[in-house]
Amino acid sequence: MTKKWFRIGLLGIFILSLALRFWGLERFNTLVFDEVYFAKFGNNYLTHTPFFNAHPPLSQYMIGIGIWLGSHIPFWHDTVNGLTGSMRSPWTYRWFNALTGSFIPLVVAAIAYQLSYRRSFALLAGLFTACDGLFLVESRYALSNIYIVIFGLLGHWFLLLALDKQNRRRSFWLVFAGIAFGASVGTKWNGLWFLSGAYLIWIVAWVIQGTHSFANAKLFFTSPSLEQEAGARSQDSEAVASPRASAEGRRQEGEGSRQEGEVRSQEVGISTCSQPFIPSPSSESPLQNLTQLNIFQMLFYLGIIPAFIYSIIWIPHLQLDKTYGFIAVHQQILKFHLHLGGNSSDVHPYCAAWYKWPLMTRPMAYYYQTAESITEPLPVMGPPLPAGAGQVIYDVHAMGNPFLWWFGVAAMLFLVGMLVSQAVMPWVKEKRFLVPATLSIDTWIGLYLVINYAANLAPWVKVTRCVFIYHYMCAVVFVFLAIAWFVDQCLRSYYQQLRALGVTITFIILAAFIFWMPIYLGLPLSPDGYKLRMWFNSWI
pTM for this structure? Predict the structure, then answer.
């Protein structure tokens, strides 16, 4: 794929995301779901109204900026309401979120490209992210979760860019990574898990290097003969791989001498490689440079800088509401969440524990109203009509693309299996522990995705308060990357069946997105059309 078509593809993904997020943005002239908090809070900053915020204030600043800018734009003010505390058009308190959410697929694509320098992987990652329903719904309303995600992802992208640079250029991108991570935490505390994922992959890189050095010290070899045999085997495999790499040729990517490293014999478990789970380590990834960062750099750039950014984010809020100081307000926030209630339907009908998120067994309705006909004005307040009376249903469902999520979980499990097999197979076959001198690019991608997915999901296991499916957004974005990686490997395979599998998965994800789009956008549905999309009772 040429650079020109790559850029056209990214532009197409952005235009698709932008159009879907702005289409009918004023459809419901009311406050939808948690807009009753966040849209009001954003407006409070403009009217200088003190208030208590149960989260860090950055997302409300962003919404407030959007309201101020939107109020000075001389169109899209046909409908207004005073629900935020001022007469505002729904467009004014939603458009900035819609614009921000439109960039998330591009950031995901940028991370995929920086991980692998594979344009096809990057385009698939961006496309799949653009085809998710939960991210679409969250972007169309004045909510806060898209800011956690985009700042956390920017932190990871800047970190990957830094690893690809040296000296001052590396420091430049590390500073931006620290700022982005601090902004993510400054939106909600669970933004901290993006930062923890960066630390974990850094620690794993050092452990791998240390283990390899330890193995080279002959402490893991059972005998000198085994060591000689391993060295001979390594030389033989290099001799075999070299002509194959030469025959296949490496495709040039858009950064001068950078090589794509798309050797088909390295397609990790779904190619013609004779050892499918032990790919050749000839490709490059910025993650291989993680051990060039020492602990002092990590603590400064990804410790002190995020903490500093997080602290200064609070200044405008504490100047507005002087009830609590910096420490006291954090104590009050913690108290609020600890007393929020248990994780059961008795507390809230849409409470969903962490283990319900990956398979999406309990999505939630952000808005639900009925009308007698499609020509009636859209209902915005009050309860729905009695059962059977409404002929038209308006439903906004915070629900992911089911097949994207389900296929993504399977791809994540595949990556876990790939990593485990690479660690176990040498021990099973040769009764010895073996750490390659250089891990393959796909092994690094697998480690990166699995570690960051776990870093953003595992902390919720111990949370006892009521949580919801939108708390999974920080983790599921790595699921999108996992299924994009898997499909990309399929499409690059020699086997026609695997290429057909990749095309089929992509088609199903796109078709599912179109099928469930009415409940993402709040389009009018007949009762039968609504039931057709509610496959399980737990979805309602």
Answer: 0.87
